[in-house]
Amino acid sequence: MSWAGKFIGSSIGQKIIMSLSGLFLIIFLLIHLIGNLQLLKSDGGIAFNSYGYFMTHNPLIKIVSYTLYITILIHAIQGTKLFFRNRSAKGTGYAVATNTGQHWASRYMMHFGAIIFVFILIHLYQFWLQMKMGTLEMVTVAGMDHPIADLYKPCYEVFGNIGFVLFYVISMAILAFHLAHGFSSAFQSLGINHKKYTPLIKFIGLIYSILIPIGFALIPIWMFLNR
Fold it and tell me: pTM (2 decimals)?
């Protein structure tokens, strides 16, 4: 086996892959939220549909999208492998620093991650799959010389169901806990750990883990209440 294969198969290598994939997904969440905030505009979905058209027809975005799908799978697989490896070593699940003072969230990273993965699958089924299968209705948008897919309609319909609204809000609460531990742990796994700047990283991670999930949770709540 080559040195690369040995490194990837090692505990350190797996944690680094886990960290890099996690940081990529963290950045994606911010970009995804900025785009989805178009749903809050009271324009009948014009802004969101225009945004959706750009995102689905830009070659560079398509490459990023496929990279995203692969990264999600890598992150899920690596997280599962680390969980069982740590558990077999009498650990408490995925964690960078295993000590008695370990935050409780680190002990449930695998559980939170599994719930989030299920959420992603449902999320893709409700929105992404319809787009890929071409079953969305077409609408005319000002500034476009041809009809475009109505990505707004399935969002409006799904978030008109209180059950799905609660499901999304609860999922975002779980995401918050996952991010709260994962953000700082990712930097520690990459060796970025110093008494001067680690507290700042943890602070930024805490703020990020609060604001991003709140932003996502606000969308279904807003769309449900403003119908």
Answer: 0.87
